[in-house]
């Protein structure tokens, strides 16, 4: 039986990818590095430190660890400042409706995000109240595609993975859900999340009715 839902944040509840892009782009420009939306796409779902390493690799740059941390912190300061502009108008279409519906139907709901800024994003959206448990980039050491963040969330919900559905927009996020033994819903194109149990192009189509009808035997 499905008793819980675990949501990724960026790309599922709200779209902060553009804000991440702008902050990385400002850092890259300052460093004289190449960075575009195609490279930004590779950062979907992965941690801040993994992200800067992808960008450095793309530019064939190597730096010592403390400099990397310093640069990642600089990017983060820009990103966090830009979060002040996020408002309750910035849910992805359908996301707030689904969260509300899950609340009224009595499901347990957790966040399972790689971001260390997840609490701030939820506050800006006024979304904190939808979640029984918040798992974020500060909760576990190993980031996606490791299943740790979802296992953390499920444990806090006191539910086994088989009783939970994970919502994810990232390829590595679906990998993480599967590695943990969770049911999975992919949000986005086939080439990115086609390996999820079920897939919707956007959150707008991912209603509780649709999800229930796909996982019929589990409800
Ligand atoms: C994820 C995003 O939610 O958080 C990634 O999809 C991002 O793109 C990651 O790199 C880490 O975010 P933060 O806020 O800890 O730098
Ligand atoms: Mg995401
Ligand atoms: Mg995420």
Automatic annotation (TrEMBL):
<dbReference type="GO" id="GO:0008801">
    <property type="term" value="F:beta-phosphoglucomutase activity"/>
</dbReference>
<dbReference type="InterPro" id="IPR006439">
    <property type="entry name" value="HAD-SF_hydro_IA"/>
</dbReference>
<dbReference type="Pfam" id="PF00702">
    <property type="entry name" value="Hydrolase"/>
</dbReference>
<dbReference type="InterPro" id="IPR010976">
    <property type="entry name" value="B-phosphoglucomutase_hydrolase"/>
</dbReference>
<keyword id="KW-0413">Isomerase</keyword>
<protein>
    <submittedName>
        <fullName>Beta-phosphoglucomutase</fullName>
        <ecNumber>5.4.2.6</ecNumber>
    </submittedName>
</protein>
<dbReference type="InterPro" id="IPR010972">
    <property type="entry name" value="Beta-PGM"/>
</dbReference>
<comment type="similarity">
    <text>Belongs to the HAD-like hydrolase superfamily. CbbY/CbbZ/Gph/YieH family.</text>
</comment>
<dbReference type="InterPro" id="IPR036412">
    <property type="entry name" value="HAD-like_sf"/>
</dbReference>
<dbReference type="InterPro" id="IPR023214">
    <property type="entry name" value="HAD_sf"/>
</dbReference>
<dbReference type="InterPro" id="IPR023198">
    <property type="entry name" value="PGP-like_dom2"/>
</dbReference>
């Amino acid at each position: 039986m499905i008793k819980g839902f675990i949501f990724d944040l960026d790309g599922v509840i709200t779209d902060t990818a553009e804000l991440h892009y702008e902050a990385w782009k400002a850092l890259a420009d300052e460093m004289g590095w190449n960075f575009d939306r195609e490279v930004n796409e590779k950062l979907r779902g992965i941690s801040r430190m993994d992200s800067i390493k992808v960008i450095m690799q793309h530019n064939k740059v190597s730096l010592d660890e403390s400099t990397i941390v310093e640069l990642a912190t600089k990017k983060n300061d820009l990103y966090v400042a830009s979060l002040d502009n996020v408002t309750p108008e910035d849910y992805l279409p359908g996301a707030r409706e689904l969260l509300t519906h899950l609340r009224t139907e009595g499901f347990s709901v957790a966040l399972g995000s790689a971001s260390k800024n997840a609490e701030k994003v939820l506050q800006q959206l006024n979304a904190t109240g939808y979640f029984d448990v918040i798992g974020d980039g500060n909760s576990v050491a190993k980031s996606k595609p490791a299943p740790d963040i979802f296992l953390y969330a499920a444990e806090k919900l006191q539910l086994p993975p088989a009783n939970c559905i994970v919502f994810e927009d990232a390829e590595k996020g679906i990998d993480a859900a599967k590695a943990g033994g969770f049911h999975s819903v992919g949000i986005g194109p086939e080439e990115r999340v086609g390996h999820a149990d079920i897939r919707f192009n956007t959150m707008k189509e991912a209603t509780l009715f649709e999800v229930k009808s796909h996982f019929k035997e589990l409800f």
